[in-house]
Design goal:
Chain lengths: 249, 249
């Protein structure tokens, strides 16, 4: 059977999702724990191959197994074999046709900025610290220009494998609560580093270095150098994916 | 001059505030960094001697120094000498009569409970995970009985040095946002482990094991065994102190 899992992790101590020769990754930890639990070689396929330092509350992966263990029990058994910074939130059986990356979905990310004069040590791992006052209202106006279907080439790092740089952003909300500014973006897909470049650009807007009204021209340029910098990984959290046609959403 | 500092820290990797023979403490790290910075032996005196694993956003300490460095510059210079999980938020000169523990103040603490079916790895260090549904409304009704001046002997661990167990709680709010229940308490002082025992008791109320209406009898008993357990340290954060008569609040 094919099993879908929802996986949360603190990305601080990992070299990202995807297995690589040097460094420990989330994918590797899941493969090892599943192989140990199910006593057969298991390889997971993830929805979002998050970079080093990026966190997740709801990344999705699948794997195929011959086990007779009920799919919904696997999450509980697996969590006892995983380190405390990786926690499977849910596991369930899905059709063999389901693929976490190719099945259509709405993806939600949050980028968090700690905007105050001093660092907060208890939130140092999941926020990006920014000292100078940011103008949240300007950031909100800039964000509005990015909503909809656009060519986001200016907001993509090289190195991605996408065939087209056209994507749809359904919503892009900027909100400040206490000292934390949260940028919450929902879309049908994101290019390589796209959310972090949006965050880096909105920070420039909040700092007054880019005007909200300049965003359309930045999109138009279709040139990475037109947008702001890539904001640091640790401020980014993959919130979750909603699959359009899958019953086990 | 006497300098007052506001200190934030992630308590995870420390054996609490107070210097002790075995293990690294916040007080020790501050003394070392200040002695190095000011080139004279410095000993800080803290307001709240938080236990191992307890966090702070606004603990207060003082020290006396002969330095000619302006008091308000010390925080910036000190932060470059401190590990990233201890951050001084503010430093200023105060009268020699000011004492962080004996000067009258209002102290605020928060206890955070992650109340959902699975652990959240990104909040594993500053929340206490509780699997079963908690009845927040019952917790709020129970909390109301604790507000005011009471003898909190039932809510104190042995080992404290207080002369009386009478304290005043100005407010005790319980609120749920997303999956996190926050117990926020403000008072004129707290007995040893008092906030964690209040949290442990309110969790029992939320779980239906203690009725809100039983709280007056628990207070009346003046017996530690009448209240609920001491909730784990990592859920507790010292939010801050407001001094009644000090100008450099």
């Amino acid at each position: 059977m094919r099993v879908k899992m929802v996986v949360a992790y603190d990305g601080t101590n990992y070299c990202g999702w995807q297995i690589q020769p040097n460094g420990v990754t989330i994918e590797q930890k899941l493969n090892e724990a599943l192989t140990d639990l199910l006593q057969e070689p298991i390889k997971v396929t993830g929805a979002s191959r998050t970079d080093a330092g990026v966190h997740s509350l709801g990344n999705v992966c699948i794997f195929d197994t011959n086990t007779r263990m009920p799919a919904e029990k696997i999450s509980y058994a697996l969590n006892t074999r995983l380190p405390e910074d990786i926690v499977v939130q849910d596991s369930c059986q899905v059709p063999e046709s389901f693929h976490p990356r190719f099945s259509k979905s709405r993806k939600t990310y949050e980028y968090r900025i700690l905007n105050q004069k001093f660092r907060n040590p208890t939130r140092r791992l999941d926020t990006h610290f920014y000292y100078y006052d940011l103008d949240v209202e300007a950031m909100q106006r800039a964000a509005a220009y990015l909503v909809g279907e656009h060519d986001f080439k200016s907001f993509a790092s090289t190195g991605g494998q996408a065939e087209t740089s056209i994507r749809t952003i359904y919503s892009l909300d900027v909100e400040k609560r206490d000292s934390i500014i949260t940028i919450r973006v929902k879309g049908n897909g994101f290019l390589y580093n796209m959310v972090r470049i949006i965050a880096g650009t909105l920070i420039k807007v909040g700092a007054g270095e880019i005007l909200p009204e300049e965003i359309p021209a930045i999109l138009e340029a279709k040139d990475r150098s037109a947008a702001g910098p890539t904001a640091p990984a640790k401020g980014l959290t993959m919130i979750g994916l909603e699959y359009e046609e899958n019953p086990a959403n």
